[in-house]
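Entry:
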Amino acid sequence: MSGPDLEHDELTLRGRYRTASNATFLGAIGDVAVVYKPVAGESPLWDFPDGLLAHREVASFLVSETLGGGTVPRTWLRDGPLGAGMVQLWQEQDPEHPAVDLVASEDLPVSGWRAVLHGQDESGREVTLIHEDSPALRRMAVLDVLLNNADRKGDHVLAMPGRHRYGVDHGLTFHTEHKLRTVLWGWIGDALTAEELAGIDRVAAGLGAELGEALSALLTAEEIEALAARCTALRAEARFPAPAGDMPAVPWPLF
């Protein structure tokens, strides 16, 4: 028996995420759980005046698919109970294996993790923001550079069973100005692998073919040109970049 038609079957609502800055709902299409973000529930943003957040979410999925690694869950545009919006396949996390964490500085893991920054918590205890050192998270960091992701919080990294990692919440992406804010800074200066470079090459090539055609319905021409420029710059440097500019390098809050 085939599953539901995700593009056209009825989307029903099961609940709402009250902590989200934009209207975000848990829904279902048949027996498939989804996240639904209607365009009508988007809050205007002064620093992202062009286009729709839903379009940026779908565009991020398309770039992720071309880069490789399945970093972003399937994401598409369709109608719903509150009008057109972004729909994404719901992912059930593995809470026992977080990919990003805030730990006491005296308890830093010996291996398998990268430190991002040090600070103090509300009680004055020394703490360190860390993330795992894995190919899956490296791919996500590369993707964020290409997307110019302005909001990679720790909770936007979903730790899945089997050590897969999904990145979600890509509404603040593709700005023509440098906006990269992320918790995934642990590889600054490290050389990109041959696989990572090949993924960047696929995105760059795709912008002149099917990927570029699909993105043209979601982003402005200037945003696509800026994406191409980021591909060229990252490919030429072939290393993970460091923070640049005067803006904060990490989002706030971190989680």
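The first helix runs from residue 53 to 67.
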